[in-house]
């Protein structure tokens, strides 16, 4: 296991990049501590796979360094980095038994059979596959095949990091929660450094202690799942995380009216004053959970009411902008009804050019 440090890392697929837009990865500086559970989260094309390939050694970055426990491994090939990787599609040998699949990484490195048996049995017990050790892998279900693929990554005790690249993409939805739970349990038991790459917020937030959110090659926020939900540092994080995501509304703000922004001229109290006078595009961010249907406030018209089980989502047109409100109880409101919206002050944030610009009072 290892602490992983990315220092001033940038990468372009062009031979002579001239501007930021030529880089698939903008400058990244971050540390992943030994034994931590981390996720790289973002939409397709945001740079997650590029970063994963750089860490694994499949790509050499255009600029910067990768350090494992302080040792520069930037130009070391994958086989010298002691990395285990689990891919979207299970990498196992169908003609081998489950036991032999789990044993293969150890035997390939010349471990004695006593060590092989000890590790295989330990991992098989963790994965709950002990009863199928003598079965051929070809006959396994997709979720069990992916379990064995995970086991092949975890069976070695000398790995610096185990990396998971969208490992649940091909798994049936009703089985995903089982594997997510199992993976979290495995991390807690083996204490290996793990990096989980996904576009699925549920997978990232249920697995990781720290989530790195990426957009267009840039890290826009690093934080715990709670931090990402409570205080999105960027409007992209607010919109991408949560269901429904944060309401983002254009506003004006001059910083002189008691921490008030204005939406189409209507005053909206903010959580606190802006850190400095805004010079770019200003927007209000408010999560639907903190929007209340009230007798006073911003005038709105109901567009849609969706009962999603434990709560109801009411979609409104508010001064020409779409706003979602999440309410715990059912509602008698219907499409076309007039109402008013109230925003909870301590959860109403100002963003300038996409970045959080206010602090709580």
Describe the fold and architecture:
A hairpin with a 2-residue loop joins strand 12 (260-263) and strand 13 (266-269). Helix 2 (98-107) crosses helix 3 and helix 2 runs parallel beside helix 4. The protein has helices at residues 48-56, 98-107, 113-127, 142-154, 173-190, 201-207, 225-230, 235-240, and strands at residues 4-11, 25-32, 37-41, 63-68, 71-72, 83-86, 161-165, 194-198, 210-215, 218-223, 247-250, 260-263, 266-269, 282-286, 291-294, 298-307, 312-318, 321-327, 338-343, 349-352, 355-356. The chain folds into two domains: 4-235, 3-Layer(aba) Sandwich (Rossmann fold), CATH 3.40.50.300; 244-356, OB fold (Dihydrolipoamide Acetyltransferase, E2P) (Beta Barrel). The strands form five sheets. Strands 6-7-8-3-9-10 form a six-stranded mixed sheet, sandwiched between helices. Strands 15-19-16-17-18 form a five-stranded antiparallel sheet, with no helix packed on it. The model has no long low-confidence stretch (mean pLDDT 90). The protein contains eight helices and 21 strands. The chain is of the alpha+beta class and 361 residues long. It is an enzyme of class 3 (hydrolase). GO terms for molecular function: ABC-type ferric iron transporter activity; ATP binding; ATP hydrolysis activity. One of its GO terms (cellular component) is ATP-binding cassette (ABC) transporter complex, substrate-binding subunit-containing. Its EC number is 3.6.3.20.
